[in-house]
Amino acid sequence: MNSNELNSKKVNLKQMNSVQMTNSSNALRYLTKWRYASSLISVVLMLLSLTVIGVKGFNWGLDFTGGVVTEIQIDQHITASEIQPLMTAAYQQDVSVISASDPGRWVLRYANIPDENQRPELQQVLAPLTSNLTVLNSSIVGPQVGQELVEQGGLALLVAMLCIMGYLSYRFEWRLASGALFALVHDVVFVLAFFALSQMEFNLTVLAAILAILGYSLNDSIIIADRVREQLVAKPQWNTTDINNLAVKSTFSRTMVTSGTTLLTVVALWIMGGAPLEGFSIAMFIGILTGTWSSISVGATLPEFLGLKTEHYLIVPLPDTP
Amino acid sequence: MTSIDNNKPFNKQLNKYAQWKYWVLIVTLIILFLSALPSWYGEDAAVQLSTKPTNTISSEQVYKVLSHAGISSKRIDQQQQNVLVVLQQADQQTLAKNILSESFADRAQVTLALAPAAPNWLLNMGFEPIKLGLDLRGGVQFLLDVDLDLVFKNQSTMVSDSVKQFVRQEHISGVLVRQAGGAEVSIETTQTDDRGLIRQFIAEQYPLWQVSGHQDTLLVSLSDSEQVKLTNLTVQQNLQIMRSRIEELGITEALVQRQGENRIRIELPGVQDPATAKNVIGATASLAFYPVAETGSVNAIVLKDESDQPVYVARKPVLGGDHIVDARAAVGDFGMSKVNISLDSAGGKLMSDFSRDNIGKPMATAYSEYSRNDKGQAQQTTKIISVATIQSQLGSKFEITGAGTHQEAQQLALLLRAGSMTAPVTIVEERTIGPSLGAENIVNGFAALALGMAVTLLFMACWYRRLGWVANVALIANMVMLFGLLALIPGAVLTLPGIAGLVLTVGMAVDTNVLIFERIKDKLADGRSFASAIDVGFDSAFSTIIDANFTTMITAVVLFSIGNGPIQGFALTLGLGLLTSMFTGIFASRAIINLVYGRDTRRAIKV
């Protein structure tokens, strides 16, 4: 209100312009409420997510735990309860028998790798049930390899985060940068929580998806931050809340279109990609959704709470946008 | 007409690309299109016969054998010593290989291969289909762990043995020599003078070892740089051994590469039965030194050397390769290449006794491999790798000269070390992907790509009617470029996660255009003409586009450098997709828009 009065006293062409802007900033005020509400939801979701991860943990895939996984194709009438006891007896450990996408396809998994020469042949083990068995694929991962992959994956996440932090702090003022960064953490935590809650297998491709989410989630936040920076310089007399509203409003249609097309393609991957890409597509799907959400609820709002102001960008003389 | 004067200077700079830019665009697109084309045709299963130049097989002979067995072939190419049979049906590949290797067992080596199905004019231009990863093609993959502890332990045994011997010779008492694990030996004595003597001995005999004192204890350890060197040598030599063994398996497109410090990754596309491959990979090698016997002697065994010439050697070797601790190629006096060999103390004693009595006589080095054949029976192959004359009495350290060029000396050193490092390799990871599953993955992946592409094209056309088709042309160009680049870049492999990366790229690539179009909309709303809105829109969106793509690029680069196998495939298509989408989204679509709408000075247009 104060700035309104100040502006109205100036009589020149610029004044016209700024009155127009103030009007539009007033018109956007309703957005503030929504943004704050979304931030609150995000905070609650974060706390819930962390709890879920803490309580349930992950269903680590073979890539990380080591062990043996074999996918087989057998006669359709054979059931898991027939396979299970044969497997357990032969390999002397708990063997999980999971139905795969098609009827007659089974995924057999057990943790301890028997010695090379004493490993019973699957054909012989399941001979009482069927003689018509095809091994579609099999993976044997030693425990030390699994451990290494966990370390490698953690390292990849860490390095990617650090590089992104470096780039953000170089490119944006720290308040805007931390907005984008927290939005990113928000998305990764949320996707992780989904995998903890659903106990879907967390394997290497899901890890790749999470790293890709790092990139994509930032995308939306950065585009809003870019707009905020631009408007802070262009409209020094506006307060930050209004600038944020304007930035969110003016990038909204782009955010919707891009997230929309990316979501569509991810859904295509989900439907057509088959079992190997299922975890990947689901992780990406959730990641893109929360990425869009968090770019508004965290990416745009957090810098405001951290006290982002016009003068943070006025120190560097930038040419006025035309 | 009246506005001509107003617009003339304006139009000159606005929305006009120089002609060369169009040429760059068109030439790039044509080249990448041609490069992408062979992948469209795919590859046919083939069998290759390699013969000796003196004993070639004609394509007619091959055709006869195959048609007799009821296997139809698309074509049979003969190129000097090689005959390539391209099969009609991929599932007959193994059958064809077995039949051919039976028929031409003594004359040719038969290997499985893939032949591009694209027309010849395309292949003659040097374009090839995209290489597919194991998850799309089917095959077996192994990760081997090279056990370095054993190598280091052998080294420290050698040092501790020779220190013990030195102590005995010099009649020093009260010395305790122990292997401290790894490449370390600890020596304990209360006498300061003795410690000095031992220090001096080690400095003279084993200059690569470092001695550090701690009260009464001397700690002798291999220097870090030397440990790294030893590690590299050992892994390198195992790589070499694996390569030559897999060559014998008859898989032309096998991949054998080092991964990390002491791992070896082996990918065998097309192999369906890991057992055979495992027998070959798990084979152990050994080495022995034999006294050479007179040619034709009855009390001798005959071994072939590398050029298939028979060498008569005594029935009992002087010593086995298990006594060899180290072997390295070096340059000796007069620039002659030689191989330095270190034996353990027992080996040194045997060699010393033998060589004392046999100065001037030749000694042969034999290399044996034990492996299992198809039927699981153990078999041994032995060949002579060198015959050298004994010049003087030898000790635990001696050298072989006359091994030929430096390269040959290195090869010999490699083989000698191979004998000393028996079975240090264990399989820590094994993955088999059936061929049907690979084919299924390809079908699923590309179905997802087609669906994703169709939905995106439709959406863009409906949402940005006037500009949407430009974005769509740019998107199609983007895909062509991506496939072209994947085929062109050496070592680029398409995996299932890689296809996922392609699908994601489709969704994200339009972002560049969306950002620009939204800016143009804004500028039109500000009351600018269409042409000027285009100009300003592209300029103001540019830095945002770079910012948005750069962070994804960071993750792609990190994934590529840290991840492995399939994940690298994902990182590759993700990263390349970003580059091509920026090229087509900014450059190509601007080029089109400039041509079509560049002069459109109407205002209040809806896009």
UniProtKB/TrEMBL annotation, chain A:
It is found in: Cell membrane. InterPro entries: SecD/SecF_arch_bac, SecD/SecF_bac, SecD/SecF_CS, SecD_SecF_C, SecD_SecF_C_bact, SecF_bac. It is a multi-pass membrane protein. Signal peptide: none annotated. Keywords: Cell membrane, Membrane, Protein transport, Translocation, Transmembrane, Transmembrane helix, Transport. Residues 124-302 form the Protein export membrane protein SecD/SecF C-terminal domain. Coiled coil: none annotated. The chain crosses the membrane at residues 36-55, 153-170, 177-196, 202-219. Part of the Sec protein translocase complex. Interacts with the SecYEG preprotein conducting channel. SecDF uses the proton motive force (PMF) to complete protein translocation after the ATP-dependent function of SecA. Forms a complex with SecD. Part of the essential Sec protein translocation apparatus which comprises SecA, SecYEG and auxiliary proteins SecDF-YajC and YidC. Belongs to the SecD/SecF family. SecF subfamily. This is Protein-export membrane protein SecF. It comes from Shewanella litoralis.
From TrEMBL, chain B:
Residues 305-423 form the SecDF P1 head subdomain domain. Residues 235-293 form the Protein translocase subunit SecDF P1 domain. The chain crosses the membrane at residues 20-41, 442-462, 469-493, 499-517, 538-563, 569-593. HAMAP family: SecD_B. Residues 425-595 form the Protein export membrane protein SecD/SecF C-terminal domain. Part of the Sec protein translocase complex. Interacts with the SecYEG preprotein conducting channel. SecDF uses the proton motive force (PMF) to complete protein translocation after the ATP-dependent function of SecA. Keywords: Cell membrane, Membrane, Protein transport, Translocation, Transmembrane, Transmembrane helix, Transport. It is a multi-pass membrane protein. This is Protein translocase subunit SecD. Coiled coil: none annotated. It is found in: Cell membrane. Gene3D superfamilies: 3.30.1360.200, 3.30.70.260, 3.30.70.3400, Multidrug efflux transporter AcrB transmembrane domain. Residues 14-111 form the SecD export protein N-terminal TM domain. Its main location: membrane. Belongs to the SecD/SecF family. SecD subfamily. The gene is secD. Forms a complex with SecF. Part of the essential Sec protein translocation apparatus which comprises SecA, SecYEG and auxiliary proteins SecDF-YajC and YidC.
